[in-house]
Amino acid sequence: MAAEPEQNAAPAAAAQEVAVHIVYVDRPESADPEEFHLRTLTPVLGSEQKAKDAVLYHYKHAASGFSAKLTPQQVEELKKQPCVLQIVPSQTYQLHGPESGTHQGTTRTMGLM
């Protein structure tokens, strides 16, 4: 019987793995972005302090939203909020790889001009 709790513990631990997600919200123009983001996240995490601790960045200009450290279960709960438009996992892309400097004697550059 001792083997059963261990088997059940593995899926529970996997469900609690935290990853950074970007949460896009439909924020009223009159609402303060940071306060609105925290009010959106607080019911899911259980307290305003936990919401503050989870948020990594507030997006206020080109998009309205925030990035936060969330478990898969928290993501599912947050999706139920009426103001949440979309939640996507955060990804990092490298613009330049190990081959980006020179290629057969020519220099390749990428960037914004």
Topology:
Blueprint (H helix, E strand, L loop, with lengths): L2 H13 L3 E7 L7 H13 L2 H7 E5 L5 E6 L1 H8 L4 E6 L12 E2 L2 E2 L6
Antiparallel strand pairs: 1-3, 1-4, 2-3, 5-6
Key words describing this protein structure:
S8pro/Inhibitor_I9_sf, two-stranded antiparallel ribbon, Pi starvation-induced protein, 113 residues, 4-stranded antiparallel beta sheet, globular, S8pro/Inhibitor_I9
Write a brief structural summary.
This protein has helices at residues 3-15, 33-45, 48-54, 72-79; strands at residues 19-25, 55-59, 65-70, 84-89, 102-103, 106-107. It has 113 residues and is of the alpha+beta class.
Strand line-up across the major sheet: 2-3-1-4
Low-pLDDT stretches: 1-6
The dominant shape is globular
Query: What integer value in Å does the Rg equal?
Result: 20 Å
Averaged pLDDT: 82
Organism: Panicum miliaceum
Biased composition (Polar residues): 101-113
Protein name: Pi starvation-induced protein
Region (Disordered): 94-113
Structure description:
The chain is 36% helix and 25% strand. The protein contains 4 helices and 6 strands. The chain has helices spanning 3-15, 33-45, 48-54, 72-79; strands at residues 19-25, 55-59, 65-70, 84-89, 102-103, 106-107. It has a 4-stranded antiparallel beta sheet with strand order 2-3-1-4. It has a two-stranded antiparallel ribbon with strand order 5-6. Helix 2 (33-45) packs across helix 3 (48-54). The N and C termini lie far apart (66 Å).
